Amino acid sequence: MNALAATNRNFQRAARILGLDSKLEKSLLIPFREIKVECTIPKDDGTLVSYVGFRIQHDNARGPMKGGIRYHPEVDPDEVNALAQLMTWKTAVADIPYGGAKGGIGCNPRDLSISELERLTRVFTQKIHDLIGVQRDVPAPDMGTNAQTMAWILDEYSKFHGHSPAVVTGKPIDLGGSLGREAATGLGVVFATEALFAEYGKSVADHTFVIQGFGNVGTWAAKSIYERGGKVIAISDISGAIKNTNGIDIPALLKYKDEGNGTLKDFPGAEVMDPNELLVHECDVLIPCALGGVLNRENASDVKAKFIIEAANHPTDPEADEILSKKGVIILPDIYANAGGVTVSYFEWVQNIQGFMWDEEKVNHELKKYMTRSFQDIKAMCKIHNCGLRMGAFTLGVNRVARATLLRGWEA
């Protein structure tokens, strides 16, 4: 099942539980606006090349739309639609005043020089500048884009609208980016895990962890787990997987990685393992931080973890969800677990609007407060509707958006 079908299915289940009016349900599902633009640029050798860029703006009932821009050869409108919709529910679960959006350009950023990427980003911004904005739609980095991409968008947008640092988040610190933004998603995952464990009177230090994906989210999550006394016993990335039953020395692994000594599997403090066995490795907590759909009907029954923390978007497909739930595995859903990134993006936007920047301690303190409060809100919905954490999160998000839509007078 693809991401859009799975997201729609979860939404429809939540709508049924909440008893939403069918007309309102349909209205909430249809995106507010879909934008598709042609971006033609001269390459460094003088030849012209065209790409298709788009932005799906899903909902703005609770505030400006918010979501990443990805540069990827297989930017698929269906997937982007699903991710835009997920952002609507995610921002509502985190209780930040945003709606959802997502966008991208169908290109391979590895095949483009820095100057070609800059030209492409500027042309894309020129085409959509009147449809994004501080109070309208606030983009952020995603797959294949970064702080530099946001700096170009900010500069190009400001040519039309005056200095507007709050038009994008995930910017370089020098241009009004927030301290703590880089660590936010990974740290948010750990704050979410702590909130879950508090229900059982446990802490991070009482558990063993397996992390799939050692990019930005995986590295910050591993670092935070290690600092709290948790044992990360296996990790994988695109190059392979490693394990150490006594716990991997995360600071040593990060130092090894930063020094560019080789791939993850060459790290001397652990032994190589089959990446396919990582997801079913013996552990207390499994944290998928990479791609969607990695837990499916083929491997779900072999998962040995007691808890799954969804740091990636849509890592568990619905069939796996049912198998794991029957086994009694507790799954902390993606629309809550990985909301740390968008929460600190919101803090960045607030700081830009105020023209007053926070220190990192304040950012992390506020992030913990938001993640802890959201978990309590989800648990309250689980109690009211007698459902699991995923439906608790979806009913919470959908209910907040539905209420805002009705209050605004959606039939007018």
TrEMBL record:
The keyword DNA repair does not apply. Residues 178-409 form the Glutamate/phenylalanine/leucine/valine/L-tryptophan dehydrogenase C-terminal domain. CDD domains: NAD_bind_1_Glu_DH. The record marks D142 as: Important for catalysis. NAD(+) binds at T185, N216. Keywords: NAD, Nucleotide-binding, Oxidoreductase. One of its GO terms (cellular component) is mitochondrion. SMART domains: ELFV_dehydrog. GO terms for molecular function: glutamate dehydrogenase (NAD+) activity; nucleotide binding. The active site is at K102. It comes from the Eukaryota. GO terms for biological process: L-glutamate catabolic process. Substrate binds at K66, K90, S345. Pfam families: ELFV_dehydrog, ELFV_dehydrog_N. It catalyses: L-glutamate + NADP(+) + H2O = 2-oxoglutarate + NH4(+) + NADPH + H(+); L-glutamate + NAD(+) + H2O = 2-oxoglutarate + NH4(+) + NADH + H(+). InterPro entries: Aminoacid_DH-like_N_sf, Glu/Leu/Phe/Val/Trp_DH, Glu/Leu/Phe/Val/Trp_DH_C, Glu/Leu/Phe/Val/Trp_DH_dimer, Glu/Leu/Phe/Val_DH_AS, Glu_DH, NAD(P)-bd_dom_sf, NAD_bind_Glu_DH. PANTHER family: GLUTAMATE DEHYDROGENASE. Belongs to the Glu/Leu/Phe/Val dehydrogenases family. This is Glutamate dehydrogenase. It comes from Vigna unguiculata.
